[in-house]
Amino acid sequence: LLICNSPGGILPTINSRCRTFKLAAPDRAAFGNILNHIAPTIGSDEYAALYALSYGAPGHAITLHQEDALALYEGWLKCMMPSATIAERQRFADSAAARKSPDSWAALLHCWQVALQRLTVFGHDTEVTPIFRKEAEMLEAIAAATPHALRRAWVEAGNKLISQTETFHLDKRYTIRALCDPSQLDRMAA
Fold this sequence. Notes:
Blueprint: H1 12-15, H2 28-38, H3 47-54, H4 58-66, H5 69-80, H6 86-97, H7 102-121, H8 135-145, H9 148-168, H10 172-179, H11 182-189
Helix pairs in contact: 3-4, 5-6, 5-7, 5-8, 6-10, 7-9, 9-10, 9-11
C-alpha cells in the first residue's frame, strides 16, 4: 500500500504498477469523532471551523490547531478589509513572520490560500461553513470593494510571490506584508 498526496511525483515505473484509490474527506461527524479520539485537547466547539479550514483532513486540522491557524485566517481577512490601516497590516505581518517553524509558515500560507479561495467564491457558493462568526461580513466587505477578476488576479500574483519567496529564500516578512496589503496585490497583479 503506497500512500501519496502528490501522485505526479511518483516515478512512472512505480505508478504503472499501482491502482489508485482516492479517499474522500470524512463527513463532519466522522471528523469530530476522529479529532475527539486522536486529539482530545481540541475543544469540540472548534471542530466545525477546523473542518472548514482543513477541508476535512483531521491530521491537517491538528497541525493547523497547533499553529493557531484560526487566528491566522482571521488575521488575513482583517488585513484585507478596506478599513484596515497600514499599521494593522504591518503588525499582523510582523507577528506572523515571527513564527519561524516550517509548520508555522505552511499554516500561514494555507490560511492565506483559504482566505483567497473563499473570497473568490464568495456569493457563488452557498454551502460554505463559516470559520468564525463575523467571517461572512468581512468577506462581503472585501468583495464589495474588489471586483471578482481582481480577486482572482490576487491569487495568481500571491502564488507567484510565494513561489519566488520559497525558491530564492526571500524575506518572509516582506512577502507577508505584500500578501496582506490589497494595494500591493493590485500592483503585483497588474
